[in-house]
Amino acid sequence: MPSTNKNTFAERRIAITGASGGLGRELALCFARNGWRVAVADVREAEGEAVVGELKTLGAEAFYQHCDVRQERDFETLLAACLPAALGRRGCAGE
Fold first, then answer.
1. With CB atoms counted within 10 Å of each terminal CB, which end of the chain scores lower, N or C?
2. Which parts of 2-87 are beta strand (E)?
3. How far is CA 86 from the centre of its chain?
4. Entry's CDD domains (predicted)?
5. pLDDT in tens, 28-77
6. Which of 50, 51, 48 is nearest to 65 (CA)?
7. d(CA 57, CA 85)
8. Rounded to an integer, what distance in angstroms lies between the CA atom of residue 39 and that of residue 84?
């Protein structure tokens, strides 16, 4: 059955935790290649920023957000950075 969702990939955004390496990085690359805006969330800033650079090289909109999901405050900060964008009130945080 065809999707009735009117959103295009260019309008979709995703936050990926653990995105500075391994499976998280591969997921970020996959979503970026398909036109998604990506929030790279991780505790390793240098590696996360490197992934953001890779995503931008692909033409994707992306930003790094420090996030240790074991820390409630970090997770809330990640949500705050992404939620306004998801609601269409502004572009991705960090841009």
1. N
2. 13-17, 37-42, 62-66
3. 11
4. SDR_c
5. 999 999 999 999 999 999 999 999 999 999 999 999 999 998 999 998 89
6. 48
7. 22
8. 13
- How are beta strands 37-42 and 13-17 bridged, if at all? parallel
The pTM assigned to this predicted structure is 0.76
As a whole number of angstroms, the distance between CA 38 and CA 56 comes to: 10
* Structural tokens at position 54: 């890779």
Tokens of 94: 């960090």
Confidence band (pLDDT; 50, 70, 90) for 93? very low
- Domains of the chain and CATH, by start: 9-86 (3.40.50.720)
91: which DSSP letter?
S
Instruction: Please identify which residue in the block is written with the tokens 């997921």.
Output: 27
| Closest by Cα among 28, 64, 25, 70 to 45 | 64
- Among 67, 62, 65, 64, smallest CA distance to 91 is for 62
**What residue type is 59 in one-letter code?**
G
